[in-house]
Amino acid sequence: MNEMKxxxxxxxxxxxLVGQTFIYLLKDHPWFEITELAASERSTNKTYxxxxxxxxxxxxxxPDKIKNMEVKDCKPNLDCDIVFSALDASVAKEIEEDxxxxxxxxxSNASSHRMDEDVPLLIPEINPQHLELLDxxxxxxxxxxxxxxxxxxxxxxxxxxxxxxxxxxVLDKVIVTSMQALSGAGYPGVAALDIIDNVxxxxxxxxxxxxxxxxxxxxxxxxxKIEFANVAISAQCNRVNVKDGxxxxxxxxxxxxxxxDDLIEAFEEFNPLKGLNLPMAPNKPIIIKNEEDRPQPKLxxxxxxxxxxxxxxxxxxxVLDFKYVVLGHNLIRGAAGASILNAEYMHYKGYLxxxx
Amino acid sequence: MNEMKxxxxxxxxxxxLVGQTFIYLLKDHPWFEITELAASERSTNKTYxxxxxxxxxxxxxxPDKIKNMEVKDCKPNLDCDIVFSALDASVAKEIEEDxxxxxxxxxSNASSHRMDEDVPLLIPEINPQHLELLDxxxxxxxxxxxxxxxxxxxxxxxxxxxxxxxxxxVLDKVIVTSMQALSGAGYPGVAALDIIDNVxxxxxxxxxxxxxxxxxxxxxxxxxKIEFANVAISAQCNRVNVKDGxxxxxxxxxxxxxxxDDLIEAFEEFNPLKGLNLPMAPNKPIIIKNEEDRPQPKLxxxxxxxxxxxxxxxxxxxVLDFKYVVLGHNLIRGAAGASILNAEYMHYKGYLxxxx
Amino acid sequence: MNEMKxxxxxxxxxxxLVGQTFIYLLKDHPWFEITELAASERSTNKTYxxxxxxxxxxxxxxPDKIKNMEVKDCKPNLDCDIVFSALDASVAKEIEEDxxxxxxxxxSNASSHRMDEDVPLLIPEINPQHLELLDxxxxxxxxxxxxxxxxxxxxxxxxxxxxxxxxxxVLDKVIVTSMQALSGAGYPGVAALDIIDNVxxxxxxxxxxxxxxxxxxxxxxxxxKIEFANVAISAQCNRVNVKDGxxxxxxxxxxxxxxxDDLIEAFEEFNPLKGLNLPMAPNKPIIIKNEEDRPQPKLxxxxxxxxxxxxxxxxxxxVLDFKYVVLGHNLIRGAAGASILNAEYMHYKGYLxxxx
Amino acid sequence: MNEMKxxxxxxxxxxxLVGQTFIYLLKDHPWFEITELAASERSTNKTYxxxxxxxxxxxxxxPDKIKNMEVKDCKPNLDCDIVFSALDASVAKEIEEDxxxxxxxxxSNASSHRMDEDVPLLIPEINPQHLELLDxxxxxxxxxxxxxxxxxxxxxxxxxxxxxxxxxxVLDKVIVTSMQALSGAGYPGVAALDIIDNVxxxxxxxxxxxxxxxxxxxxxxxxxKIEFANVAISAQCNRVNVKDGxxxxxxxxxxxxxxxDDLIEAFEEFNPLKGLNLPMAPNKPIIIKNEEDRPQPKLxxxxxxxxxxxxxxxxxxxVLDFKYVVLGHNLIRGAAGASILNAEYMHYKGYLxxxx
Lengths: 356, 356, 356, 356
Description:
Four copies of one chain form a homotetramer.
Chain A: E1 7-12, H1 17-26, E2 32-38, H2 48-51, H3 64-67, E3 71-72, E4 82-85, H4 89-101, E5 105-108, H5 133-141, E6 146-149, H6 153-169, E7 171-180, H7 192-195, H8 206-217, E8 220-222, E9 225-227, E10 232-239, E11 246-254, H9 260-269, E12 286-288, H10 297-300, E13 309-316, E14 322-328, H11 332-348
Parallel strand pairs in A: 1-2, 1-4, 2-3, 4-5, 5-6, 7-10, 12-13
Antiparallel strand pairs in A: 7-11, 8-9, 11-14, 13-14
Helix pairs in contact in A: 1-11, 6-8, 6-9
């Protein structure tokens, strides 16, 4: 990889929590260089420092170079090769399409296009072959650019653990209950009065996302379409008083015989990106913790720079076959880090060449 | 009910969190009067005020009459008719047996005897007929007194919702994930450093308790034994940063056809103690909340004076048949209040007469 | 007091957190009856239940009678005798003046008029003689009604403890650092992400309010004006992760000699409303806790139904003379309860007669 | 500095929270190498991994080399040149003296010897000349080694801000109210039930430590003794629900005229270790934040790797002269990091030569 000339990236929705995470993760990136920041009207024509005054949530200073960059409109006239989108779903659809139409590669964290038939919902360890949809997308939409999405934060960590189980034992059914962190709701997000001494057993649209996205990601390319995985999935999603890191209690039914050690082996051996040297990729996507009370968000969310899904308590289930707990960082592997890893993988595979 | 002469009750383990809850709930009870407080050596020969100094957790003053009572040894020479046991499981077995042997009625919140074949694990709305075991217990153990237990806090609220489903539609399978409050671990219990900004996906022995107790409580008397309910149950138990109130996400598979409205009707009509006027009984044991984001511990745990199981989000499950959320107070309906309700029911049925 | 005919009260800003607290506190009030609810446009023409859907924060059901009341505009055509104002400061000034002009008695919790020269900033235990300002107000403003304000939540609990010290020993200087609860910021107020695992050492305008209001409240009527108390006051105000209850660390310098026991005596004997039987009044406005680690918000904020200032840790200060901690409920004694107590006191003194 | 041969260090009390912090901070230290770990009986003869199982609180894995080291007794037969003491005050006095007697240099974080007349209470930016006491100590105690202490966590951040004020304007009086983090109480420390939704306005012995230590640290060597600074100091210490980072609201009276800009200049220019290249030293010991709501523990405690005191809200005080807020990491600059910096400074000055 010639690192002399970095790929110029813009960030759409740069002032929000996911936008900030892109900046945090990209500030020393060997391949990508932030050249543009864009956001809604409220922030435009300000420096980034002014735009996020009182709203910057990472416990480090804003990088000096970024501080003084001007925040621009989310219009497709930015000086960059690709854009990372951290836009709110309410506006993402149209803006992302404008950018794709104008020839930008769009790596989107928004939910707007995730379930579109011709849009990859990409996790490079799981469904890299879904990138074939880009040809379909180009044909359908006549765009010079493209839209590639990454999954919802809760979906991401769930499906990273389901993939090896599906490969080895063929998944049949999945029940998952999530305990999701505050930062998943953005900023300002959840009111402190609502969550102190409390659990909120509801997150709008979240359960549907987990159920649908998982089946798409695990699906197979059949001709120009994805055939969704034949897995029944049921999710219950809760908000708990945790800053970062979603915890998920999972039960699975498998079509093939297995025992707990088989599952451990399947998790341990899962590492499809090994050797590719993608900067954002974890050394291992699944980390197993053996202590009986792990994983825990505060202690484990930062493993592998926030890019791992941390699994523990793998054991028999009286109703389905097995149960376990998975924990992962929602802002990093579950959002900005996922988009960046997608871009890295696409660059590695040569998909970005034509945009540079 | 002649209320002139109150039943004299002692509290074993009076200084702990559940012991304190007994005092809080019994202070103006129309039938019962606290005449004795007993605890471990650390507290004996002190006034109750001294014994709980810096440890009293209810946000009201200790009742004046209780403040100056002497804390005694947990020896069966107390001046009372029945005892409520809030003892730690590590010592409860022996002490409770001593009291039963010596002719006391023991209403126990401890786990030690819950699964004994000849000990009722009583929830009066569900399995009052299990009190028939007292004859078996008397024959087996030659005790002048008795031991009647109430269930684990998480079990209690789960099984209160399962009972009407089982009656109407016959339960087949249950998967439950709990998010349990801090007070369930007693005092001092969980370290603040362990739970701030965190979830702990493990509570020692809790999952087994939920799985086993539920099947016993839903079981039927067959001759002198309980035949456990033929239901598969799987539990995942988590500690979250909530003071009081356990939240449980439940999925159920039923043997009979039903729809969401049927479940609502089954929950709504469930009220077996109606009309008995037991002081601790809720007006309705199951409260349904229709808001999409309820029940929530902070907002709903005190409904019906903490004696209700509050249900919400009843909906279809893609894997089993239905799913819902149930929330209830772990210290009241899930512990001390349950023991008191058991005593009230037994008194109403005449089981306590011989001890007065 | 003839309780046959209750005084009809309206609540302005009825849907916010303080508005809700008025409803919570007035639902069984022996003298006052809520006949009108008013709020901003967003809520008008809805039932109260609809207007606060998902925003009702008290852990009890909304009173049935209130649930179905229509929320009206904040226009002075309401069917009531007096209004309690829980309006936001940004709109309170004009609306409250409209009501006063139209002949309503306005008991305001808003800050807009607190520092006006002809408006009483009333705490009946402290400065009942400031009600003489109502004559001045009438003359100045030509209103048929009136505006009487109560103090900021932090000021209220501070000044309740300063009053007996000033009476007995003459205050010279006061330094106070507050640790204020979330509910003081209204709803939704503080973002959970901002306060989890955090302290925010800033509350807009709060320090000035504490410093200025205290000197007015402790001031004396000189002719038609209040001469502010000659006390130097410095405040530092912080937001902490507590639901309700402001904790304040106070240091005082006195002009007369005193020792710790003298201070205790001054606090203990302070009870100017004793014997008046005002329904909202605490039995004692100052409660002293002797335990070395009290008062604490979670354990002490509800003493005296939330109407007490709870004091502890009275001891020598190396810099000024003495220091102590005071804690009190910010929504009750610090807001809605204060307004209600003011109305009760005014009714007792006959100030409301002409409005009935 | 010849970095070829590292100084061998042992950690006393290696399993506690401060002990863990020493390990976390020293794992890649250029001058020091951990060769010994020692702790109480409970942990001895276990590997470090076993000894801290379920108690390791840093969100990174235990360094591999450390994991398998044996935990030894706190006896002065360890293979190391100096020891860092993270012992509990209840045992520190005797053990530390044993080590000093046996020729070890002891860098202690415990409170036991801090106020001893012949023991430096060292903060190298403030009172390096107090190291002259080591001659006195040697003469008094006949030790081959030495004991040098660092200050209490709250004292440390306070006095780092007081030093430049004293140098420039001569301090007269100081009032400070602290809001201290949970980790300051060690592990398990504070019960979650005690601090959720709460403030505890009491920390045993803390206020005396702050008041006394500050005057010693700011004191001057007069012959063989320290003359304490002639400053009146009053502290109120509170525990709040924050993981790490103590926040302190300070008011100061100065003997010389100054204005806010002068204070800022004094803080900004304070950097006595500049240019010494001590590995643990911050680039600047005092960081000023200009935002009106800073410093905040969650956002600012990690600045300068946790070694800075972060100051904000410098403004006039109505009672004393000025007030401001200071925030700092209690486990790093307030504990383990302070000891390490002391050792670095002593090494730089040649004090450790004879122990190597």
